[in-house]
Amino acid sequence: MFEETETIDEFLARCSADVEEAVRKAAAAEILPRFRRLAAHEVDQKSGPHDLVTDADRLAELRLTEDLGSLLPGSVVVGEEAVHADPAVYQALQGDAPVWIVDPVDGTRQFVHGDDGFCTLVALVHRGVVIASWTYAAARDQLATAVRGRGAFLDGERLFAGPPEPGRDLVVATSHPDYTTDDQKRALRALWTDGLAPRPCGSAGLEYLAVARGELDAVAFSWEAAWDHAAGLLLVEEAGGAHLTLSGEPFRVTGGNALPFTAARDAATARRVAGLLNAAS
Q1: pLDDT tens digit string along 201-222?
Q2: CA-CA distances (angstroms) from residue 32 to 11, 123, 194, 200?
């Protein structure tokens, strides 16, 4: 059981560097040595040919689970691979203990194909609120961090998304067609309209980082797995952006969201994209 001997803010003030070190070490030990060196037996399918998992995913998550749990006694870890093995693990997001949400390799398909567009995502959540996040693009040696109320940073430099340049088409990264149902494709098709330039997304974590950097105007996603979204949504918020579901409410990592949803570099863009998605639903 979690005993609150210090606040989460106090923990972060004391241990943020330790969390960063744990993320970097997991990537250095389990992910980077396998990048562009994966053997066939190190890659498996989960739900289908587009849903891949590798030994790097499994072993990095095990290492992060141990290290993050040790840093914050009484916390629990909700990792993508642990939930795949036992869906009941996801219920920890509904509890009172602090939760580490972990995606060891976000963008596994890119990783398998030798593309450097993958990252490790870690978010610290307490009672449904994302408090802090770490987005580490190991192959690019880029680390983005955010703490609620304290801003978003990339390699120590403050991120400000800012509004889009007036008069140009909004670039929106959307759920990749390989991962969407017919109904989801129909809803997202509303974004193929004048003034928008949609494209399929890559790693969700890196797309969120692009929004936070002001390099991408918005994302529009049709699924709600917390490990894909928690870290990036806080990064976008702390860079001045916003996120909305079809109900007009922000996305909740605890689930029950009206989908699809959007995250954008400013509130006006979020409302515009959400409005188009809503009209098609």
Answers
A1: 999 999 999 999 999 999 999 9
A2: 29, 21, 42, 26
Please state whether beta strands 242-245 and 261-264 pair in parallel, antiparallel, or not at all (unpaired): antiparallel
- Inform me whether the pLDDT recorded for 57 exceeds 50: yes
Distance, CA of 91 to CA of 78 (rounded, Å): 9
Neighbours of 110 (CB within 10 A): 18
Tokens of 273: 């994209």
| pLDDT-based confidence at residue 52 (cuts at 50, 70, 90) | confident
Rounded Cα gap, residues 251 and 268, in angstroms? 16
Structure tokens belonging to residue 191? 């974004």
Residue 59 has pLDDT above 50, yes or no: yes
Q: What's the whole-number mean pLDDT along residues 53-73?
A: 96
Whether the Cβ atoms of residue 58 and residue 111 lie closer than 8 Å to each other: no
8 A C-beta contact, residue 237 and residue 243: yes
Put simply, whether the predicted model's pTM sits higher than 0.90 gets the answer yes
| Distances from the Cα of 84 to the Cα of 143, 149, 225, 226, angstroms | 27, 32, 11, 13
Residues whose CB falls within 8 Å of the CB of residue 122, separated by 6 or more in sequence, listed in order: 19, 23, 64, 68, 100, 101, 102, 103, 133, 134, 136, 231
Count the Cβ atoms, other than its own, within 10 Å of residue 189.
14
Distance between CA atoms of 46 and 44, rounded to whole angstroms?
A: 7
